[in-house]
Predict the structure.
Amino acid sequence: MMRIAVVGGGQLARMMALDGLRLGIQFSFLVEPDESTQCVDGLGEKVVWDLGELLNNDDKSSYRELFEALGRPQVVTVEKEAVPVEILRGLTSFAQVHPNPDAVYQTQHRAREKQLLSRLAIPTANFHVATTCAEVRTTYEVFGLPLFIKAVESGYDGKNQWQLHSEADLESFERERPTGPWVVEQHVRFDREASLIGARSASGETAFYPLTENLHRRGILIRSLAPAPNLPEQTTRNARDYMERLFNEMNYVGVLAMECFVCGDDLLVNELAPRVHNSGHWTMDAGICSQFENHVRAIVDWPLGNTQPRGPKGMVNILGSRDLTKHQPRQPGPSWLNGSSTFHWYNKTDRPGRKLGHINLAHDDLQTLQEQLAAQDQQLYGEA
Ligand code: AMP
């Protein structure tokens, strides 16, 4: 029996397992003691392990113990990038690890990631890696305002990020004295944001979903639409070419997500995620092979499935209540559903801004789907 161990036990692990179980694959999940998660309950073995302790005592026998506790998986994978790569390296003595630890190492750190993109001649925003506030100020003098400052690690959903719009913002950043290093980026005046999700199997087969258009609010993904409308073929070809370069350079196996700014017909790559991605959740109900199933197929080296949907598809995230005076959801309810939507709930407790679930929508007519996405957004957040 094939078994996959997933590092992490959040909603991405949940959706991976829901698809993998259907293929007859078993799952275990490696979670840390402080990682309270019910997302994967009932889907496989949840193994709680103190990774800090393992790092302090990383002889081969402790990794064997972990491997045994995980049920001797053939493949280990990740559902998040913030994983100590030494743990992944330690497990390579016992199982295939996909994506490989070096690929996770490259993409879990914004500076390494940006340097990788530059090395491969993949366009990005102008950036500078700064370690002190003085260097941030020098960069500000070159790039001007607005300026984006992003911690190299532990930044997601707009966290550990500063947007400077004025000299006063810079002064308050300096007063706050946060600790670097940071990637300091020039502001990109993009028309919209898009992402590419692709998969590469262990034997080198590749498959790409269409580019997806994404709308973020306060740094968090709110909704997606695929295929991104009105993009020239060449833009899609460029995006695939960039991802092919990344696959080859990193000897990558699994699903990779690439978030981009669209400026006219050009793309600037903003961020990579070495995993399945929120902007690919629409693939679950699109009549094709989902990103989760393709990730599983890629890492166990099975042929990849169809990635080309017929007709437009969309997704709206359900976030935890930010402000209880707004009519945001506390509990999933049937009023959110209609004949053309499907509903996914992750079993998480409500916290402001937390991703609790999502709704997928589909309609053959693009304009109708766009209206439905806006209406769903309006219903959940009072914005459209
Ligand atoms: P990130 O954490 O890098 O994914 O950034 C979160 C969101 O902030 C992005 O999806 C963009 O909407 C916005 N953003 C980040 N970097 C820049 C930039 N250099 N210029 C303009 N907008 C940005």
Remarks:
- The two ends are 47 Å apart (CA to CA).
- The CA atoms of residues 135 and 141 lie 10 Å apart.
- The chain has eleven helices and 18 strands.
